[in-house]
Amino acid sequence: MFGASAIFALQRCEATVDPSPLAGLILTDPSPRVRSHVAYLLGELGEPSALGLLHEAAKSPTPRASAAEVKLMQLQIAEAMVKLGEEDQTATIRAALYPARAEDLEITALAAQILGQLRDKGAEGELIYLTAREDRAGHKLPAEIRLACAAALARMGKTQGSFLADEYAANPLPALRAQSAYTYGRDRPGG
To answer: pTM score, two decimals?
Structure first.
């Protein structure tokens, strides 16, 4: 992963560097995390010629990966494709907002984060819905999901999500307090 990051950094600094190792990593590395990272970097580089590689990577097998790891990787690939001009891939990301199982909640949180980074105004209604959604027993989605949705909305200019951060700002879990602080930061103009 460090090699991919180094290539990215050198490209950003406009140094002469061979980016071809990125193709090998995204297509054949056994780790879906490495492939996800490379997809993210390709999207950040902004080179539309990488779209073919990303399409190939989306179909490339990861035999030892769990279904959740593959889905997370697919989301990163879809994000990179959107950044490179394939707007129709936002539908893939939006679909991941709705978890089928409890194990899919990490996927939901990543999808919300990505939609915020992409500033996908078309997802606003879905993100708002998820901050208030209750199951049949009256339970809301986990705090991490609700805060991710609030932060994503804030990135899109909807600065009314601090009430969600208020709910968790004094939580005994440091991760929730940190996510609340992040949401507060995003919920301010220029955040």
So the answer is: 0.87
Cα separation, 9 vs 151, whole angstroms: 27
- 161-185 CB burial, b ≥16 within 10 A, e <16: bbebbebbeeeeeeebeebbebbbe
Beta bridge partners of 134: 140
CA–CA gap between residue 24 and residue 99 (Å, rounded): 31
User: Percent of the chain having pLDDT more than 70?
Assistant: 95
Main-chain dihedrals φ then ψ at residue 169, nearest 5 degrees: -60, -30
Give the domain ranges of the chain. 1-95, 99-191
Q: CA-CA distance, 109 to 144, in Å (whole number)? A: 7
